[in-house]
Amino acid sequence: MISILSVSVYGYSTPDMNVYDFCNDITVKLTRFFEDRLEESTHEATKIAPSRTTIFKLDLVPRYTLKFIETSLYSRKWMEALRELTRSEQAFEDGRTPDCCHNLRKGLEIVWNNVYEELEGKKAPILQGSTQDIGVLVKALRGRNVPNDTIGLVTRVWAYIVERDHIEKRSGKAPSNRETIYAFQLVFATIYYLLQLLTNI
Amino acid sequence: MSEDRLNQIYSARKRLSNLESDFLLSRAHNFRNNLKAFVYFCETDPIMKEFTSSLKNDQSIDVKKWWDDIFKNVSSMMGGIRYELPASPDKQASLLYQFVLGIESGKFDFDTFCQCLWIFNT
Hints:
The complex is a heterodimer of chains A (201) and B (122). With 201 residues, chain A is mostly helical.
């Protein structure tokens, strides 16, 4: 007697699960590769475009701020941060304000962490789970003689964007356009300030 | 000139982002349509073609052999069959792109990859 046993690359699973696993395993790797290539091409194209042309399209933030952020992130190969910020812009353009705030929060978190690493020469510790330990990041800024009122603003911006990212804490209410534009401007201004710290080392 | 190119890149980025979302939300009934749209985009978009032409023509990649190797030890695949990918991002992308093209064209069977049949006698 012949029996047939179905075994998958991904173990025993349904057709939907196979598709899900295939997309997460194969196609995501490819699309990320293409995303990186497109980012490089964008950077190359903006280098030969007028000096204030950047990969960012929306006029929510001054061009020179965007250009500085883009150049700094690209030159340090902080592509993950750049990707989060360009995704935040795309999400805003598509009207997805929760996604926009999430990407902004991620972008700020990555930049702040990387700035810490560059200032302190070691990785920033992560609290239990995946919570960012803001205390050590603040301490690093203090160690660089960043004024207390500026540190206060940076931490308030962090709190503001974290609050907008956690819509479950807001009874599932998505951030409004007004809040999201404000968050966009605050986060970009903060990232600009943090990156400027590195140019003054 | 550079403005035109930037616009083409923006357009490609947006389309790629949408296709990526489609993939992540794919189910069995719409996966092939999403795959077809992805391959069409990769093969026809002027910016994407710049990347995919080198991936397709990478002579160091033998996707057929890679496919055969997956199923070579089919009798010992109780824990699921396995495959290996090159460590280099460029080589990995070449292999995966050629594989995806093969799946889309029918050269490689998606169901065989995901639902490998193990026939045994009892």
